[in-house]
Every structure is written in C-alpha cells, then in structure tokens.
C-alpha cells in the first residue's frame, strides 16, 4: 500500500485500491484543473455546451436546472422544479433542454435559452441519467439496462444490457458520451465505467478515489456523480453530489505492479 501511495504522489495521480486482475482496462486520473462547485447542489445531471455547464440537481423541494460558469461556479441562470419532483439527468437536444425525474415517470422540456417550460413527456419506471450520441438520446434507470430514444418523439427505440466481465452491472447513474463510448457513474461508488454502446460491454473502469480530500468533506458531502465532456477542447469534468469542487481530469492507465 505504501508503494501505491508513493507512486501516486510522484505522478500527481490519485490511485484507489487495486482491483482483482481482469481483462477490463483500469484507469486512475491526473487532476488538470480544480474549479468551485456549489456545495448545496445535489448533482444529478451535468453537461458542457458552448463554454458553460448545465446542471440538474435533485431532492424534493431543492431540485433545479442551472446554467453555471465553469471557472467560478457562479449560477448564471436557474429554474426550480415544483417541490414534489426529484430532478434527475439532463440533456440538450437542439434548442431544448430535457430533464428526467426520479420516480414520477415524468420528464420536462425547457427552452434552452430561457428555461421556459415547453412541454412534458412520460416514460415507464425510474429516471436516472441522460446523454446523447448525436443521433439518439440514451437513458439510465438504475438497472443494468440503458434505453435508447428517438430524440424528436422521445419514444424508446431499443435497449442494451451493460455487462462487466460477463455480469450485469446495475445502478448506472449519470451518463456522458465521450469519443464513441458511454461513460457512466456507478451509484454509491467512486468509479466511472466506459461502455461500448453497441454491445453494452464495459471497456474500461476509472477509479476516482481521492478526488476530494478529507478537508473537502463534511456531513453533507455525498457520492461521486456528474460527468461532462468538452468535445472541442477534449476536456473531461467530474464532480459529485454536494461537492465543493469540480475537477478537470486526464485519464491515466493503471499498470499491474
């Protein structure tokens, strides 16, 4: 263990406990930049678009959609959900922002520029995360399945089951499309998985232990959740529920000692 800690310190990378040897490549990270994040934001959905972050937050009576300045964490624009709804994942399609709710089987559509309500939609089961490959919307629901939707009709067109070394991987949460793969937070863990959208197979796992120091945490700090990718700048951002910081990271492939 001391060897692993020393290696992490020397490389400026944070490495969590080594997993059992397997065929799935493992990654840790290098922190490129650290940005402020609202420590009261229970992050459920996150994306980067045109120089700003869009964030969806959860918990009844506290849920909102937000436009956030990356560099300072300043909330530039905000709309609260009706108090009975627990906000979940968000995605932008053309000039609309779409948002899931957890158990209400209802989603909301907003004008991207003004956040004015534009409509509602429904789906069976729970809503967790959203992303898009540019042609389809991809949804997680807390199970091992990912759903694909037509982005215009918001009707389901298919599903895949996500597997890790042959076993279904449940509790897939916030999603992000990154270079042809789906990145997904695994709820209640400090890791992100990379998923092949054609087969559902996990193609890599990212160990995010150590991003927040003990001094960054308090009794409100919750789990890792929130992935955003700047495709033009090739920048990957991650944060968590009620985290005081948001991180830009680079992936570092873990080698077996």
Percent helix range: under 10%
What's the Cα radius of gyration? Answer: 18 Å
What is the helix/strand order? HEEEEEEEEEEEEEEEEEEEEEEE
Terminal residue distance: 12 Å
Low-confidence stretches: 1-21
Strand content: over 45%
The total of beta strands comes to 23
CATH superfamily annotation: YVTN repeat-like/Quinoprotein amine dehydrogenase
Sheet with the most strands?
A: 9 strands, mixed
Question: How many structural domains?
Answer: 1
The tally of helices reads 1
Ordered list of secondary-structure elements with their pairings:
Blueprint lengths: L1 H10 L1 E2 L11 E11 L6 E7 L2 E6 L6 E5 L6 E6 L6 E7 L2 E6 L4 E6 L5 E6 L6 E4 L4 E4 L4 E5 L6 E6 L1 E2 L2 E2 L3 E7 L2 E6 L4 E5 L6 E6 L16 E7 L4 E6 L4 E9 L4
Parallel strand pairs: 2-20
Antiparallel strand pairs: 1-2, 2-23, 3-4, 4-5, 5-6, 7-8, 8-9, 9-10, 11-12, 12-13, 13-14, 15-16, 17-18, 18-19, 19-20, 21-22, 22-23
Briefly, what is this?
The chain is mainly beta. The protein contains 1 helix and 23 strands.
Describe this structure in words.
The protein has 257 residues and is mostly beta strands. It has a single domain (19-253), classed as Methylamine Dehydrogenase, Chain H. It has one helix spanning 2-11, and strands at 13-14, 26-36, 43-49, 52-57, 64-68, 75-80, 87-93, 96-101, 106-111, 117-122, 129-132, 137-140, 145-149, 156-161, 163-164, 167-168, 172-178, 181-186, 191-195, 202-207, 224-230, 235-240, 245-253. The strands form five sheets. Strands 1, 2, 17, 18, 19, 20, 21, 22 and 23 form a nine-stranded mixed beta sheet that branches. A four-stranded antiparallel beta sheet has the order 3-4-5-6, with no helix packed on it. Strands 7-8-9-10 form a four-stranded antiparallel beta sheet, with no helix packed on it. Strand 11 (129-132) and strand 12 form a beta hairpin.
